[in-house]
Amino acid sequence: MEYHVSRLKRNNIDITAYYPDYQESNVIRDSQIKNYFGRRLSLDSFRYLAYIDFIEKNLIPTTQIENYLEIGAGNGGFSRTISIVTKAKVFICDLAEGLYLSKMFLEASFDGNKTVF
Amino acid sequence: MTPADLTSAIHGIYDFVLFTPNLLECIQDHGVRFQLFANTRSFGEIPHTTIKHYANILCQMDIDNMFLENRFLNTFNPLVKQLTGFRSGEEYGSTWVPKEWDLVDSVLEPDWCRSPYEGTHPRYLALALKGISGYSKYINNIDPDEFILSVKLEDWFLQSRAYSKHNLIDAPISFYNQTLAGLFDLVRRDHNSDVAFLMLRLIEFHFGNKHIEEWGFYRSIYESGSGKKYKMPSIFSMLITKVNKGFCVIKNLLS
Predict the structure, then answer these.
(1) How many structural domains is chain A composed of?
(2) Domain tally for chain B?
(3) Which end of chain A has fewer surrounding CB within 10 Å, N or C?
(4) Alpha-carbon distance B16 to B33, whole Å?
């Protein structure tokens, strides 16, 4: 994770102001987490936020995303990130087993504040 | 979930709508416009026929932007594959991306998926694409013939068969990022056999006789377009190269 912190530093990004509303899900084990200025971040957190940077740079300001579609979302980690950063309605298409995993993860990650169909 | 459930989910107040692939086609019937579509680390690892099916549906959907991050130019062990069937038919990496989408940016081995503390990890290609035609900075701004000519003048191409085999596999392939981006996009869009030939030569130059997942894809594009068989360097020419290299080493030692 220190590599990613240095990567952000090299790009003049202040980690305290880097998507301040985002932190890793409570479902993720503490052994996978590092605490940066009161925020829980994992290796996946840095990757997901880098995806958002790439999208912002090349495609669209995230504030303009109303509907987001992901096929093969795994545990739903990036979908969760998109939902936090953009407030978009998230559509996940996956095999039933994958959807079960996403559903469990997303429901457990948002303390009931977000609804999953 | 039934199509009726999906309809109510689309129009209802939900943050997440989860559905199985059989309902993907139903989405477009509701006129849902997606400002962003993403697929990371999965389309590059499923059978080509399945991706083709998804790609056909996605091309008909109302999607403005696509973000993809999937495998590209990874090595594999043919013996393990033959014996276990592991990832058989799943060696198309990022080559499946439909020609209808315009490439805005591509990064091979982006810094977010590298780490100086990891020895080996799959090589990924991140792609930003637009669903609106006329956006590509590679295709629209570069004439394919000019591009092919310029690639043929690059040092790696001029000397590609003068190097011994697989002595560059540990070197960063990012040296050729720009060339790879152009080759990748031109093959994707036009299935141009001349460009596929250059891609094969670049893969051969960098990876030597290692097996690369997308090799078969590019070879089939080249062979079906040109009607010729792609010729690997002969054992004799490789031997000559090795002998030459040996002479150089001895000469250097003596001097």
Answers:
(1) 1
(2) 1
(3) N
(4) 16
Chain A positions in Cβ-Cβ contact with residue B137 (cut-off 8 Å)? none
A116 lies in some domain:
no
Whether residue A107 has pLDDT greater than 60: yes
Query: Does residue A23 sit within a domain?
Result: yes
Write out chain A residues lying below 8 Å of B32, CB-based: 67, 91
Q: Given CB atoms, is B112 within the 8 Å cutoff of chain A?
A: yes
Test A54 with B128 for CB contact under 8 angstroms.
yes
Q: Structural domain of residue B250, as residue ranges?
A: 32-254
Q: Do A51 and B67 touch (CB under 8 A)?
A: yes
With CB atoms and an 8 Å threshold, state whether A92 touches B16: yes
Question: Poorest-confidence range of B55-64, B110-119, B151-160?
Answer: B110-119
Q: Is residue A11 helix, strand or coil? A: coil
Q: Is residue B189 assigned to a domain? A: yes
pLDDT band at A28 (very low <50, low <70, confident <90, very high): very high
Mean pLDDT taken over chain A: 92
Average the pLDDT over B120-144 and give the result: 74
A117 lies in a domain?
Answer: no
How many CB atoms are located within 10 Å of the residue B81 CB? 16
pLDDT category at B165 given cuts 50, 70, 90 is low
Q: Within 13 Å, how many C-alpha atoms sit on residue B77's CB side?
A: 5
Residue B12 lies in a domain: no
Which of B7, B18, B109 should we substitute to test contact with A (largest number of A Cβ atoms within 10 Å)? Answer: B18
Cβ contacts of A58 on chain B, cutoff 8 Å = 104-105, 128
The pLDDT of residue B207 is 86
CB crowding A33-58: b at 16 or more within 10 Å, else e: bbeeeebbbbbbbbbbbbbbbbbeeb
